[in-house]
Amino acid sequence: MSGIRVSALFRPLNSKEKTYHGDSINIRGIDSESFVFKDEKDEETEFRFDKVFFPGSEQADIYEFLALPIVKAAASGANGVVITYGQTGAGKTYSMEGPSIIQCDEKQKGLLPRVVDGIFKAIKSSDDIIKYTIKLSMVEIYMERVRDLFDRSKDNLQIKENKMQGIFVNGVTEISISDSAEALRTLSTGIANRAAGETQMNIASSRSHCIYIFVICQETKNERRYGKLILVDLAGSEKAEKTGAEGRVLEEAKSINRSLSALGNVINALSSPGRGSHIPYRDSKLTRILQDALGGNSQTALLCCCSPSPSNASETLSTLRFGARAQHIKQSAHFNVKEDEEETISPPAVSSTKNESMERILAKLAERMEPEDVQLLKQLFVLEGIFFDPNSVEEVESAYEDVTSRTISSLQKAVEELVATVDELKKENETLKALPQESYMLLNPTLFNMVNVDRV
């Protein structure tokens, strides 16, 4: 078993920090893996990570140490995740994307464009690959809703789990990409749809957690490989008194902080020796979607982005402690490689056992529901295609919640459309009432008679 690879990145001081504290910083480097941090009370703490990137570090060095090994593994059939974490304005999105996803010089390129280049380079350098496909999807978690950034009409996607795919976003748009340029153009479209807003800490603050998903399928003469590579640009933790957030922005900040708090609880549970069997993955959409990345079949790297300024000492200390806890998590990643005759790259066809699975789910739900409600759920399960073997009551409840949530969402949309239609008809009716009777009768004799009855 291996642990999560954790690195700390200290960005250069910004103009606001220099105004208040000049060039002073609260870190003192020891070597490439450790440093001393001074908090608000001038108390010093030594931290040691797998790698420390001090102010002025090169973007290429961060990629080569943190992400490149995971990219190579994903191209060989393993699952991998790279996460950027830290307070708002700490440099997470710059580290992930660079100044621009498409147009920037080589030196400034972020992790994402380098990962894209790395995936195609790794695949094309392999001599035994007969054919391959790479599919890209992109979602954001905004106010506890999973939104498809390639199709904005999909704004409440559900998170599912099965033995073949592990954790996945059901119904997400997947776009096949054939080269780096095409991938970056596609990503640029998704990034433009991401929720952002201005705060006193950041002119373009990310208001959502952004998740980039690459699914890599390869076929050789003897085997098939299936790798999933996920990049996660987390929204930053915030203090309202620093960001000046109010109204909608404040509600966004509260939602961000709640999900990051849930992430911290999962990290604590996974890293605590002698922990119980329950890990609170389901406490937020973020922790649920990162379940495999944190405690399952995945190689994971965490980049803790920090400000070196005394102005942000408490937030930086919190980020560093988060990274230190994450180092204790152990993972058991393995390669998803199947012999050619097994034909398991694609999800298996639904077998006769699906009906048995559904009946077991319904039988458990019948213990606390009315028969007519169970029948309604049965129809919904058939409609939604939810067939799996429940391993626990928790999975049954999750399936129930997913179906009911989607049904409620559909009903809400139908009601909204109906209300909009009624409003339009009312406006048309008022307009028609205001017309002279002669013109009105010529336009529509039937409506003329209806309105006249209404007038009487």
Protein architecture, described:
By secondary structure, the protein is α+β, with helices and mostly antiparallel strands. 43% of the residues lie in helices and 22% in strands. The chain contains 15 helices and 19 strands. It has helices at residues 15-21, 59-74, 92-97, 111-124, 180-192, 240-243, 248-271, 285-289, 291-295, 313-326, 353-366, 371-384, 393-434, 437-443, 445-455, and strands at residues 2-3, 5-10, 27-29, 34-38, 44-48, 51-53, 80-85, 129-142, 145-148, 158-162, 166-170, 175-177, 196-197, 205-206, 209-220, 223-233, 299-306, 330-331, 337-339. Strands 2, 6, 7, 8, 9, 12, 15, 16, 17 and 19 form a 10-stranded mixed β-sheet that branches. It is globular and about 80 Å long.
What's this entry about, in short?
The protein is an alpha+beta fold and 456 residues long.
Explain the layout of strands and helices:
Blueprint: E1 2-3, E2 5-10, H1 15-21, E3 27-29, E4 34-38, E5 44-48, E6 51-53, H2 59-74, E7 80-85, H3 92-97, H4 111-124, E8 129-142, E9 145-148, E10 158-162, E11 166-170, E12 175-177, H5 180-192, E13 196-197, E14 205-206, E15 209-220, E16 223-233, H6 240-243, H7 248-271, H8 285-289, H9 291-295, E17 299-306, H10 313-326, E18 330-331, E19 337-339, H11 353-366, H12 371-384, H13 393-434, H14 437-443, H15 445-455
Helix pairs in contact: 2-4, 11-12, 12-13, 14-15
